[in-house]
Amino acid sequence: MRKNEIVFLAMLLLGFNTKAIKPQETIARLARISLTILHTFNGTDGSQPTVPLTLGDDQCLYGIAEHGGKKNCSDNGGCGTIFKLERQGNGREFQLVFSFPNTTNYSPTSPLVSLNGTLYGLSAMGLNFGANLYSVKINESLSIIQFIPSNSLSAGITLQKGKFFGVADSSSTSPPNVQFFSLESDGSNFETFVVDNKLVGTAIASPMLSAENGYLYGTASRVGTFKGGTVFRLDPLTQKADLVCSFNETVGTDPLNLMQTTDDRIFGVAVSGGTYNAGTLFEVHENSCDTVHSFNKIDGLSPIGKLVQYDEKTLYGTTLVGGKNGRGNIYEVTLGDEVMVTSVYDFDSSEGGFPSAGLTKAGNNTFYGVNSGWDTIHDRIESNGTIFEFVITE
User: Fold this and answer.
1) pLDDT beyond 50 at 220
2) Is 371 exposed, middle or buried (0-12, 13-18, 19+ CB in 10 A)?
C-alpha cells in the first residue's frame, strides 16, 4: 500500500473528511483596512494581555493582562490586571480597573464573560493549586465567588442558559480524568463531574463553545488516536461526552477556540501540523471535521486566536507568529464552496506583536484586539503588549 493511501485511510478513521486537505493558494478579496494602536502597556497598568477583549453591557471593552500591576508575586512581574477601554464617539480612553493583589489571587488567564452588568473570570489561587471564580461589577470592586480546584485556568468558563461550565482539576482521580464543573452565577449549586479521558484527555486550553443545538463543544490536546488532539461534544444535561474527531500531524494538532457562524457552521484552529507544520483551520460537522486551510508561515504561523465573523461570508482571525515580520498577523477567511485565506495585516515590533488572542467585533466594521508582546512558541518577551483597533474601511 502506498504512503498516500495509508494517510487517506488514517484520516477516515480519525473522523476527518479529505476533500479540502490540499493547500489553499487562492486570493480572497483585498479588504481596505486601517489599524491603530490605542494603548501601549507600561507594566504598572498590565503586561502580556493574552486573551480576547470582552464587550460589556455598557458597550465598553474589558480585558485582562496576565502580568503587570502590583509586584507582589513570586516572579516580581506583577500579579495581573483588569482594564477597560471606553468608546465615546471617536475617543478611546484606557482605564485600569483592578490590580490583582498577591499570590493568593493572581495571574488571570481566562477570557472575561459578561452577564447582566457583571464580568466573570478565573484567576490563580497560589499554593492551593486552583482557581478563583471572580466577579467584577462595573464601577465596583472585585469579589471572589468560588474556589475551584483546577489546573486548567486557560480553559476559562462558558456561559449557557445562565449557568457557568468549565474545567476543574484533571489530576485528582486515578487514572487522571478531566473533571468539569458547573455552577450558577452567584456561586450556588457548584458541582463537578468526570468525562472519560479517552475523549478529552487532560489538557484543555480554551473555553468550550455553547452551540445553538444545546451542546457544549470543546477541544483537547495530546489525546486521540494519534495524540494530536480531539473535538468533543458534551451534553450539559446528561453530563456525557462523545467524540467528534481526532487530529494528527497531517490535518493539524492541538486544536483550539471553536466558534459558530450565524448560519450554524462551527470552525476552529489547530496550532501546529498541517501541510507546512504551521497550523490549520478546520470545520466541525456532526461526526467529523474538515481541514479547510493549512497555513504556510507567510499567511500565518500558529493560529491561536479565535475566529470572529464580519459578515455572512467573511471571518477574521490572528496568528501568533509568522507573517512577513515574524510577529503575527491578521488574516481574512472567505467562505464559499472552498474556503480562502489571505493575510491582510502583518504586525511589526513597534506595534507589540504576537497576538495570542482573537479579535472582538464592536460595531459594523470595527474590531479590537491585543498584542501580547510575548512569543510563547520561543518563550521570548519583546514588550508589555498593546491594544489596537482594526477597521474595515470599504
Assistant:
1) yes
2) buried
Element (H, E) at 194: strand 191-195
Amino acid at 34: S
| First and final C-alpha spacing in the chain | 52
Helix or strand holding residue 272 (H, E): strand 266-272
- Residue 159: CB partners within 8 Å, gap ≥ 6? 113, 115, 210
Tens digits of residue pLDDT in 241-293 = 999 999 999 999 999 999 999 999 999 999 999 999 999 999 999 999 999 99
Identify the three-state secondary structure at position 340: strand
- Cell 447582566, located at residue: 116
Residue-by-residue DSSP string for 26-66:
-------EEEEEEEE--BTTBB---S--EE-TTS-EEEEES
Q: How far is CA 220 from CA 83, 233, 269, 375, in A?
A: 29, 11, 12, 22
Quote the cell numbers at residue 190. Answer: 457548584
- DSSP at 218: E
User: What pLDDT, in 10s, does the model give residues 28-62?
Assistant: 344 588 999 999 999 999 999 999 999 999 999 99
Task: Give yes or no for a contact between 69 and 384, defined as CB atoms under 8 angstroms apart.
Answer: no
Whether residue 323 contacts residue 300, with contact meaning beta carbons closer than 8 Å, is answered with yes
Which residues on neighbouring strands pair with residue 148, listed in sequence order? 131
SS3 of 14, please?
Answer: helix
Cell of 118: 457583571
- Provide the pLDDT confidence category of residue 4 given band limits of 50, 70 and 90: very low
Please give the Cα distance from 338 to 354 (Å, whole number): 28
Report whether the peptide linkage leading into residue 23 is cis, meaning its omega lies within 30 degrees of zero. no
Q: What is the pTM of this model?
A: 0.90
pLDDT tens sequence across 108-164:
888 999 999 999 999 877 555 678 899 998 777 889 898 887 766 778 899 998 899
For residue 209 the three cell numbers come to 463553545
* Cα–chain center distance at 383: 21
The most distant pair of C-alpha atoms in the chain lies apart, rounded to whole Å, by: 66
Strands 266-272 and 253-260: antiparallel
Count Cβ atoms below 10 Å from residue 162 Cβ, excluding itself.
9
Identify which has the larger pLDDT, 214 or 15.
Answer: 214
